[in-house]
Amino acid sequence: MKSPVKLCCPKCRGQLSDKITELVCIACQQRYPIIDGIPVFASVDQYYEGKFAKVKPGVGSSWKEFVYKTLHYFHYSEIFYFLQRIRGGVLLDLGCGGGTIPFARAAEQSVGIDLSLASVRNAAHYYDFVAQGDVTHLPFESDQFDWVVSSHVFGHVPNFAKSDLLAGIHRVLKPGGQSIHIIETDSKHPFIQYAKSKPELFKKHFVERHGHHGLELPSTVVCHFQQHGFEICHVKKLYAGLVPLWFYYIYFNNEYLAHDQSLRWKVELGRVAVRNTFLNLLTGTLQGLYEDSFGQWFTELDYSQALAVHVKKVVQ
Length: 316
Fold this sequence. Notes:
- The chain is 35% helix and 21% strand.
- By secondary structure, it is α/β, with parallel strands linked by helices.
């Protein structure tokens, strides 16, 4: 698999000597194996290995896409956020998992990187090039990508490593290049504050269950982008007001019920909304309409439980 961009040593950014079974850094002599044609730049993390390996197929047919966009169907709002902005160029998908087909179609050339070797094996079927590696130590030379994107990745990166992540994105983007992300966040929303009132349950069901060890308040996320040389093009608040009904089923259908039986009716409604096709479509459409109107107009930024962020690399 030939890379459409130039690789470098993620440790020292030195030039790599391309051998049959490995890459060797000319500067620091660090060796990186090539497995099934995929360069491996980081040690395996068993938590992530194969965990998000399923490919994301996108919306489907053009008429379905038109209907969902017109209805503001919530379950596809994130992918539309990307597709409304990405136009050609070379794209890097951070924490790509098994790949996202719409990314590959929207860009002229697509590159994916993920800690999971099983995931990038799958992504290799759709992207022009993939690598196994750590998103905080990118193995790509500077100024090569028109787009750097990620979906639900930032929350997995520990807060102490956020600066490395953002500096790396800024480095590999071309001058004027753009970056788009869906980012899980900490929140002042009553839903999250209630969940935090049971610290052990919050840790188990909100943090460890999803690997969200790097959640920050939305205002902090935006500030960090600005501090690392990005111009904010657009920020969309997610789940800042009305909480999706199915959230109660996803997050509270567990030991939380033993502490608060008043949650049961919301959990049951959420269960029905998830499992019934018609109600799923109805609640998803209503939630999407709300998110794109009142959810943006009348809510505070730090009440968001996630953000859609579009930024541009500023050239000094």
